[in-house]
Amino acid sequence: NLRPVGIVGAGPAGLTLANLLRQGGIPCVVLERGTREYIETRPRAGVIEHRAVRMLDEHGLADRLLREADRHGACEFRVNGQAHEVDYAALYDGQTHYVYPQQEVVKDLLGAFLDSGGDVRFSVTDVELHDIETSSPYLTWTSASGERERLDCSFIAGADGFHGVTRRSIPAGAVQEFSHQHGIEWLSILAEAPPSTHKVIYALHPDGFAGHMLRSSTVSRYYLQVPVDDTVDNWPDERVWAELHKRLALRDSDWKLTEGRITEKRILDMRSYVVEPMNHGNLYLLGDAAHIITPVGAKGMNLALHDAEVLAAALMEYTRTGDDAGLRSYSEVCLRRVWRAQEFSQWMVFMIHRSPEPFLSRLGQARLEHLIASGSSAGYFAQNYVGP
Ligand code: FAD
């Protein structure tokens, strides 16, 4: 009688792990703080790497994604009002990104898990972890109807995001934390506006970075570099559009930015964080619970999916054969990819932002000019951007 794996959090990491375990015949229960509607409509990421899509497809979890997602293999940098296209797919074996909103990934994963008889407890509160250093860890929580409940687990998977409870349950001093604030902030804007571009745009402007990201045929995401400690109140809609028009403008071109109703405006703290190792006792952390990365380079959800794949394989190997080699190397395998992504993201952050120190801004621009002019630099960008 196998005790289930207790998974805290029904985001991309937790739900991918849940599906893979279920397919492998390993029982699991997912505890989620939000309602089903909340997790299925929470817009965040939108760009998935080819490797992550292949993994989902291998497990029969990418049917709708492959039908509906747009594939993208080029992006555009704008410097001083001039556009430079980088065809990264051509530079990296034809590999592309898939543009498919995160909430659709969650919807597909949740649907597949529930259709196969999976057990998700929504709207739980006060989740607590117990005895994680023993072979009989257990979870307690308050259910939607107000009862205190308990689950005896074989392992606990902490997939409850950066602000969740699982990482905080590890005793102080048992893990090392690495954290860095990049000295910049972004105003992130979601609007009901059709994309004004076929490619993601990264624009360097004397007033700061601006980005135009793709989400769907009716919705677009934009980013504006804003001073640290700026607030959303300083950014009424008219100012947002005026600044986007200015920073994204092209010289000698009739290119225009299409406006739409703004549905979300938030300040993103451009912070990176990694915990090492990603496990303690029989608690294994995955996704944002273990590491966060700036949205530059679009890596967060992709790392979360990779962690889930590695952990599922390790848990299955252990359950089937008793061999714990995969569990012992779980953290090391995931962290290698995490630090690779952190290094690339930092490389890109430096390249596209305006620094308060003019010297550093010019260095960043020099890096971008090198990328545009040099095949080897463009190759480095392509391989890291679309994912190893
Ligand atoms: P989450 O998605 O945060 O899921 C955690 C789940 O746990 C949530 O459902 C939450 O409700 C639940 N939970 C939290 N606390 C508890 C608790 N105590 N008990 C029970 N449940 C709990 N990444 C990319 O790869 N590409 C992109 O283009 C990209 N763009 C982004 C844009 C923005 C604006 C933001 C904010 C992020 C972006 N990311 C991107 C990052 C990406 O969204 C995250 O890395 C991803 O959501 C991580 O997935 P996760 O499953 O680890 O955590």
TrEMBL record:
UniProt cross-references to SUPFAM superfamilies, sorted A to Z: FAD-linked reductases, C-terminal domain (SSF54373), FAD/NAD(P)-binding domain (SSF51905)
UniProt keywords, alphabetically: FAD, Flavoprotein, Monooxygenase, Oxidoreductase
Coiled-coil regions listed: none
Location of the FAD-binding domain: 4-344
One Pfam family hit: FAD_binding_3
GO MF annotation list: FAD binding; oxidoreductase activity, acting on paired donors, with incorporation or reduction of molecular oxygen, NAD(P)H as one donor, and incorporation of one atom of oxygen
UniProt xrefs under InterPro entries: FAD-bd, FAD/NAD-bd_sf, RIFMO-like
Gene3D superfamilies: D-Amino Acid Oxidase, subunit A, domain 2, FAD/NAD(P)-binding domain
Stated name of the protein: p-hydroxybenzoate 3-monooxygenase
Organism: Saccharothrix variisporea
